[in-house]
């Protein structure tokens, strides 16, 4: 049997703008292609029937409105991508196709490793996934992650998509919160009959012949990838089976899907084998002072500098003369953190589900759907380490050579019974291997509902929806800050059996009997036992749920003579109510919640909570003039939505839009929309904490401090000291920190500052923030 399915297919070609007027000079054929016949069960169209039973006109429901229209010309700037284009693109990841649109900006996806949540989301207008609403057949997609509760596109198999509609007008008045940047609506294949097997496989190929990038790697002494490389094999297999009842009163369609993606390392590409920058007119490789040999900033008591010096010594191990420090040379001593990072994460996904409907009568159609996904992915970045942490080094540490003792202690007049408490160390844990983040998301979504025509002029749709996403993360090969401090607090053993041998002070005093000295003062001195001791995993898990009950009615008032005297079509209306409840729970282990993991951007604390919202909405479409001189059509659309949030109180959204078609080729559109976004559960209930914010003040410029370092600031370890050293005056990177608010309903002013590592902050500003993304130091 030949597989068939009926849907309305069309491309709406339009430009997008937040407010104002757009001009479309397009051919009628491009603006509204003729569509194939649409069955009664199609989510994209309804059919008005005359009293004699003959079909009068096909009406289409376009994303951005619940009012059916007699044509595919939408007032809202809607872009439609058909299934054929999805197939021609050869992509197996939905986010890749979306990100190819000019309206979208790449955000979370399969090509992100450092800071990845394991999900894939959409960021329209670069406003973030939290301001982009994602729908499946006009109904919300459940948030896919408790930390970043945005819709996860991994949930949607590419082979099941009939078309994608992107509305950039801001449709909060139609769909509710989160549609600030716009709406992306995935229309799924329906009324499928037969059996279909879709197999899609692809691989990346690259010729490493970028002369500039290769020259930069050679100049830095880094390995240079050469030749042709094939990698990143991606395979997607989807099977669909569907059947209709003999009397065409119903249809059931089921699917199963499997996707496997191999990882791609940055080391395999000459242009990504190092972190590149431009120096003069040429490419150059950057790197990190958190290197394999270690970078040591040696301050004295009170973070003082040696007498007669303007800065503290910045030294590293002298491999040519083991047991000695030498001055750090940023031309040769930087660590190349790029090669071990994933360009493309490994991924394995299983999904399945069904869509079904049955016509109980001419007025009642029952429908249901169920979708399931289990997605497992792994990200990888460079090894963890001591990213500019301050340690106490005993002056009688038996692992130190005489020259090292003199540099750390003798310079400041410290004796054998004392310790230098102000040694800042940047040392990469290369022995522990790259950091790996094992991420799993298991999601499901079910919908049941009734819809139908009441009397030819009125249609209704009532449904209940439940969705959940279960999350688990196991972060491997990070290191514990507490264990690092203990493993560097090494003294001569006072016990008879091992007298004079290097031993952790925490072993002698019983604080940590398992401590193993971390010998980073001798090339090759780090043992596997020490690496196993400091290596510490982190685990967190959680889930999100979403419950929706919604009902809407739309009608054509033209059947009652309600229309403009200058138009053929009558007024169209839609109104309804919706209830939605969102819950989220995140449980983190002690390592995540305390911020003890050195390779994280800050602590991630447990949080849980819920909110609900009750909404009323209405729309009105008014055809003012049709088929008049220089006015092919003149239409006005109005929309209003009232919402009561248990967490944020009342708010209203609305839209006023209009369009004037001079003829079939020229159309003017304009409108004003008020869109809102309510804070999500994670933003509402996350406790205040200090974290690496990564914010920047574009108006402040670069700030250099003239004051001496503040000991309390340095000791607090709140600054990320991974990438810049003021003593070298080579790096212009600036880090910032922020206090995360616990309740965005009453936004807490968040203090952040331009700070050079190892210095106190000179310039501070205040801004407001509601969400953060965890980053790992490079």
What do you see in this structure?
- It is a single chain.
- Residues 1-58 and 693-775 have low confidence and may be disordered.
- By secondary structure, this protein is mainly beta.
Shape label: elongated
Helix content bin: under 10%
- Give the rounded overall mean pLDDT: 81
**Largest sheet data:** 14 strands, antiparallel
The share of residues in extended strands comes to: 35-45%
How big is the Rg?
31 Å
Spans of 5+ residues with little confidence (pLDDT < 50)?
A: 1-58, 693-775
The computed structural class is mainly beta
N-to-C CA distance: 55 Å
List keywords for this structure.
single chain; 778 residues; mainly beta; five-stranded mixed beta sheet; 12 helices; 38 strands; 9% helix
Short structural description:
The chain is built from 12 helices and 38 strands.
Summarize the helices and strands and which ones pair or pack.
Blueprint: E1 20-25, H1 28-31, E2 45-49, E3 55-60, E4 78-82, H2 83-89, H3 94-99, E5 104-105, E6 123-124, E7 132-136, E8 139-140, E9 161-167, H4 172-175, E10 182-188, E11 194-208, H5 211-220, E12 227-244, E13 250-261, E14 264-265, E15 275-279, E16 282-286, E17 295-298, E18 314-317, E19 325-327, E20 342-344, E21 346-359, E22 365-381, E23 385-394, H6 402-408, E24 419-428, E25 435-453, E26 458-479, H7 481-488, E27 490-492, E28 502-504, H8 505-508, H9 528-534, E29 535-556, E30 572-588, H10 590-594, E31 607-628, E32 631-645, E33 649-661, E34 666-674, H11 681-685, E35 690-692, H12 711-715, E36 737-739, E37 750-754, E38 763-767
Parallel strand pairs: 7-10
Antiparallel strand pairs: 1-34, 2-3, 4-9, 5-6, 7-8, 9-10, 11-12, 12-13, 13-21, 14-20, 15-16, 17-18, 17-24, 18-19, 21-22, 22-25, 23-24, 25-26, 26-29, 27-28, 29-30, 30-31, 31-32, 32-33, 33-34, 35-36, 37-38
